[in-house]
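Appendix B, record 7
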Amino acid sequence: MQFSILKTDSRSKARYGEIETSHGIVKTPVFMPVGTQATVKALTPAQLLDMGTEAIICNAYHLSLRPGEQVVKAHGGLHRFMGWDRTIVTDSGGFQVFSLKNVARVSEEGVEFASPFAGERVFFSPERVIDIQRALGSDIMMPFDHCVPYPCEWDGAKEAMLRTERWTRRCVDALSGENPGGQALFGIVQGSVFKDLRLESVKRTVEMELDGYAVGGLSVGEGKHLMKEVLDYTIECLPWDKPRYLMGVGRPEDIVDAVAKGVDMFDCVLPTRNGRNGAAFVRGGKIRLFNSAYREDQRPLDSDCDCYTCRTFSRAYLRHLFFAGEILAMTLVSLHNVHFFQELMSDARGAILSGTFGRFKDGLLEAEDKGGQ
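Structure tokens (predicted):
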């Protein structure tokens, strides 16, 4: 993996760059749709490509349980298995330590989960997580980390942060030696909302000289103010010449604000999750199609959008599909939402290149303040 910074914004820390993997070039800042189980829900790989998607993220924890990483490996890896020939990032399962905390037992060796399918106990260690991701053949791997909820006591956050460092070192050791796929390994900064822990995590993680660095453990209930505060002092301490990845944050205004702080990579389930539930992102907010106001509305979701959905269908038709229980509703609104996010990132990159990023950011935030349509 190679990362190049091609342009910086003179009035912020935003930067335009390229990540090159064996599956192509990813222009940054980039938004990666979430394909947890080797699929971006309701969308085909061809549709994602048509929208300009250059990278997606899949989940090693879920894929190891179903269908099993050896099944994927027998198909030639995740790219062939799911028909996606562009860059793939795999999350390690560290977020599941947080999201499945009621069925997880954390120890120094790793985490024991109760399988959501048959209830049997399954054990994940840092070494096991690397083995899974090597079998999947992703381009960028994430280490096993310990993500804590908010609020969290300082002592608990420190314990999880130090455990994340030790687990990351074990991931590095597990990856040492032969790496025929040339897979990159990022580090993850933890520490909840405590500045001293975050900065210590940065120091310990950067010492490992990894291929990129992610900020984890945010957007878990701490609110916008605290998230921005953590990002302000965390991002500036990460190496300038490596990709910076903010995990799991996906509100448009939060993404653009983080781009201004120097973040390069984002992922979130919001576009497709909202799409499946009848909510469409538009400049300035969201349209909720279950609202009776759209029953006879002949306008597209967004008159300024050129996605297939907006070129072809009205709000009234989309609302009808949801009320009729038609699967197509989920596809069409998810398609629009992912397209919206890809256009958002394309516009951000264009603004950095043209020296107008500040104006672009202010315009977006002003539209958000005024609300949706």
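Remarks on this record: The chain has two domains: 2-268, 276-360. The mean pLDDT is 96.
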